[in-house]
Structure formats: structure tokens, C-alpha cells
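Researcher: We're teaching a course module on how sequence relates to structure. For the next exercise, students receive a sequence and then see the predicted structure as C-alpha cells, so they can try to spot secondary structure elements on their own. Here is the exercise chain.
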Amino acid sequence: MRDDLILIARFRKPHGLKGEIGIELFTWDDRRFEHLHTILIKSKDGQITEQEVQAVRYIHKGILLKIKGFDDLTAVESLRGAEIFIPESERPKLPEGRAYYDEVIGMAVVDDSSGAVLGRVTNVLDMPAGDVFVLDRNGTEHLVTNAGGEVRAIDLKKKELRVKLLEPYSKGE
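Model: And here is the predicted structure for the students to work with:
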């Protein structure tokens, strides 16, 4: 698979008899499908094809897509479980100081005052109060919240998450 592809959704189950199918979003911007004319679909067997988005419809349980050429229940059933990608170049730009999760995972975590590398970000948890970064520090997992004052900066160029850790973490506990 190409390295420049970003997973944005997965097809769920067909809806009705006219070729609509529900999707599971992996993006914060559920309105992005209104602006996408084509998507890349990775089938369950790993094949990637470009398909035209014919229609987008919002319902109380989520989003329904209609893909050109998939006009009935039988045709759209073949999309169940397939993944929807876009090229990285089509990903919306974020404001300064913000980053996508896949850009943060793997970043070095650096103490803002001393410059010491404390570990690496291994995961990002999307929590109601704000993002929580999972930090691997010498084999021990620590959680760093983006909601308080712990995260000082996200530097995409240096691939660093600069932090001021709470007292117990700063002593290596």
C-alpha cells in the first residue's frame, strides 16, 4: 500500500435497496465527504481502487455514501468492511500548534525546561476533556493530558512533543 494514504473511514452495512452504505468515521470532520468527489477504496483483499462519490446523506445514525456504479444492495454489499482512504495531500491543514494523531505517534517527548528526551508517544486517546498522549518512558506507560498545562508545544518539524510534566513524572516515577 502507498505510504501517503490516510484512512478516513470504513464501510459498514448497506442501507436500503438503492446502493447506499453506512460508514464508520476515523476523522473529526464529518462534513469532509461533501467536498470529496473521489475516494480510494481498499477492499478486504487489499486491492485499492479509485471510486466516485455520487451522493452523501446524513441520518441520525451517521453518514451514508452512494458510490457511482454501486446501484443496488448486492453491489454495495461487496463494500462492507472495505476502508476509505484519501491521499495525504488532500488532508485539511490544521491551525498552528495542532497535529493529526498519526503525526504525533512516534514523536519524542521532550522536557520543555531541560531539553531532556523523556520517551516517545505511543498512542493518543481521544477523551471528552481533551487528547491524552500515551508516553513510553523506559518501558513504563505515562499519560500526558493536552487539556491542562502539561503540553507546551507540538513541533512537527522536529517531531517533538514538548511537555512540562507533573512533579511525580518529572522525577522518573
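Model: If you want an answer key for the exercise: The chain has three helices and twelve strands. The first helix runs from residue 73 to 77.
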